[in-house]
């Protein structure tokens, strides 16, 4: 018997979520379908019972269900609706019950804007320290910030994550500071360093997908370090070649 709960991993705050219990039991042998949240029943359907449905309260949502007992709708979901959902199906012949794998669903408030990158200046000399801050817009849960330089992820040892900033309606924003010493390799051939900040929910993708992704990229001009010239080199550059030759000849006569 195949039983699978089809449900989203993420749901936007205030939206309607559809949960479908997909199973392979023929209708003639179907006895019961149940939906659970955090291992507690929220809906029970028994085909031959009158009425066939018994429902329980779902925190943070209003529940509706279809007549065949395999699909429910959670309307106007709130943060409390987040949790582990599953379903199970029972047969009459033979007497058998099979449960689905649970699906962890999270109610989120997506970001409304791209993250903001701020730094002291837009031009740096090779060897200088570059400091930049990235701040996400308010969301729930708090976004995770990741720095990239020229499309390569920055080592976490160069990043400092500040405490989250609480906003209204249980939303939070994140700020992370990047500190690097600028090198000639950063500039590349065009003389510019490209800094990107990714703001994601969650911090790492589930099934290679994020619930919410925002990105900001800025370019910083990199100037080569000035060439250090010694005093003797400076003097030599200030004299014509003929004058230098005369001085050397005179010194040769004085010093046998």
Automatic annotation (TrEMBL):
Task: Please state every residue range assigned to the domain named Ig-like.
Answer: 1-104, 115-219
Query: Which InterPro entries would you find in this protein's record?
Result: CD80_C2-set (IPR013162), Ig-like_dom (IPR007110), Ig-like_dom_sf (IPR036179), Ig-like_fold (IPR013783)
The alphabetical list of record keywords is:
Disulfide bond
Q: Which Gene3D superfamilies match?
A: Immunoglobulins (2.60.40.10)
- What's the protein name? Ig-like domain-containing protein
Q: What is the lineage of its organism?
A: Eukaryota, Metazoa, Ecdysozoa, Arthropoda, Hexapoda
